[in-house]
Amino acid sequence: MELTYPLIIYIGIGVLALAFLVTMFAIRKYEGGIKSANGSFIKKFKRYRSLVIRYWFIKFIMITALMASIVLSFFLATRPTRVRTITNETHNRDIFICFDVSTSLDGINLEMCEMLKDFVKDLKGERFGITMFNGRSVLVCPLTTDYNYVLTMLDTLEESIRAGEDVWYYSDVDDMEAYGYRFSGTLSDYGSSMIGDGLATCLYDFPDLDKEPDRSRMIVFVTDNDLLGDPIVTIEEACELCKNRGVKVFALAPEFVVDEGLFKKAVESTGGGYYNTRDKKAMKKMMNDVTETDVNVSYKSFTTIVDVPEIGIIALISCVCVYFVCARRIRL
Question: CATH for 93-295?
């Protein structure tokens, strides 16, 4: 506990000393006054002696309560506070999940959504974002530490994928709004599964690429590399852009991935990793590697100052009550 205005303590000591001197002079005024007759006779009675003892006992309590009230008043005037220093651990990483939302990847995307929910809940200050692409790329969730919002977006995407299970593209389903969510903005007349475009767009969704070049950044990339169209950026070019920006790509692909050798080489050139679902533990291995990669931990401390007058106020009220009860008891 600390005092905001400790000078008041010294002022209080001076006031108490002055009050003591004034009281002593006031008591001396009554010395040598007129004496009552037969005082020694009265003092022999037990009743008198018991009343005197009770009087001095109550007076002692009353004066003690009065002095304590004055002291507590000065104590509260100093404004007692409690200073707390809190240190937060923050992981300085930016992580994007980039989904290829073509229907051939529905099963993998559903599994990925479920695993990401557990992953996001364990984050400690990392910023997390979501993008999805098909013919075009859409930023679903910008980088944020609002993990509840991230989980909501994952639930929405998962609901959209489940709404289209066992139906053909553009089929009539009960929940068309949910089904169409992942296709809103991702469809294009120029083709589908624009792999390089999707990855490159996700790269430039990272803020402050130039201002904070040393910040740890990575992309979790889910695709089958089945390009159907003429992209602006090839997968090799997109990975080269990521490499130049220091962004590591961790790619998860299904067994039917197209041009696996070239795709794997491009991804691994970024310093990340390539994983294929023919290994049943591929998804778990990928997320473990993401968790353990480039964990830059920083500690930020901040101080809070909170007033703590509660104990002093309760004690002051108690002392004042005791004083008035005693004063009334001895008829002062």
Answer: 3.40.50.410
